[in-house]
Each structure stands twice: as C-alpha cells, then as structure tokens.
Specification:
The chain is an all-alpha fold. It is built from 5 helices and no strands. The chain folds into 2 domains: about 10-100, no CATH class; about 105-170. Helix 2 packs parallel to helix 4 (about 105-130). It is globular, with a radius of gyration of 20 Å.
Length: about 170
C-alpha cells in the first residue's frame, strides 16, 4: 500500500479504537520489530480461531449434559463469545478491512462448523423444551423459550440458505 492510499483509510481515532489499543497493548515493544509482530499476529489468529471453535463445543456439551440448568452459564459464555467476534470485526472494519469479502467457511471446515451448530442448536432446543411447556415459569421466560424453539431452527435454515446463495454467486 502506498502512502497515497493511507488518505482513504478510515480514521483510527475515537473511543473504540483507543480502548482497543489499550486492551491489546498496541504500544508494547513487541510490535516494534516486524518479525515478532508477524509472529504475534499469527499466534493471536490461532488463539482467536481456537476460541471460535472451542466455545461452541463447550456450550453444546454444557447444553447436552446440563440441560436447563446450564442455560445461564451458556448464555453468559455465548455473549462473551459473540462480543469477541463483534469487537474483532469492528476493529477490522474501522481500519478498512472486511473479512466477509474473503467469503464464508468452505469445504470440510464449513461442514464441521455446520454440524457443530446443529448439535449446539439441538442442545439449546433440548434445554428450552421444559421451559416452553412449564406453566410455572414466568411468562417472559416461557415466551422466550417458545420463541427460541422456533427461532433457532429458522436461524440455522436462514444461515444455510444464505451460505448456499453466497456460494452460488461466487461460482458464477
């Protein structure tokens, strides 16, 4: 990238970017040397991918093993997992990088991740079933469980259809 291109990049200013710099310790001497910076960036990517895969596996196992009792822990873990992804994507977007341009997961990784989402969704439905039919559960929670029973399968279906259309568009 030439210095002329720098003028078209989004501004790295603002509270989000300052907070990200503090959180990631971007002023660390580790980032001063190019090879160390590259190795750290790769190591961070490996760690990030580990969490992207390990947390859904952990959540799915918790739902299948713990059922309804695991729901509060699952929701808390899932929220942190989602925030990590949103923060990473937001940071990249602020610097003019859109990972979605590279395309979705493909091949075996996509199949394994899809199977993981089906197992996780099955565990979620299994945990929500007792709540959805329990008249002693407060209305809001019961309604949320009933909505989840419909929303989870529809969300998976929408994701699968979206990925299928995206794959077709890329082949054309």
């Amino acid at each position: 990238m030439s210095h002329d291109d720098d003028a078209t990049l989004p501004s790295p200013d603002g509270p989000f970017m300052r907070a990200a710099a503090v959180l990631a310790d971007l002023d660390s001497p580790l980032y001063a040397e190019e090879r160390e910076r590259d190795v750290w960036n790769e190591a961070s990517a490996v760690g990030f991918q580990f969490f992207l895969w390990a947390i859904p596996i952990l959540v799915a196992a918790a739902l299948w093993i713990g059922g309804r009792a695991a729901l509060p822990y699952v929701v808390g873990t899932w929220v942190i997992w989602m925030l990590g992804g949103v923060i990473s994507l937001g940071y990249a977007a602020r610097l003019g990088v859109d990972p979605a341009e590279r395309g979705p997961l493909q091949g075996r990784r996509a199949a394994v991740y899809g199977a993981l989402m089906v197992v996780l969704s099955g565990g979620l439905i299994r945990a929500l079933l007792p709540i959805a039919g329990d008249d002693t559960v407060p209305g809001f929670l019961r309604g949320s469980a009933q909505g989840g029973m419909v929303g989870v399968p529809l969300g998976l279906l929408a994701l699968a259809v979206g990925l299928w259309f995206d794959a077709r568009k890329r082949r054309a």
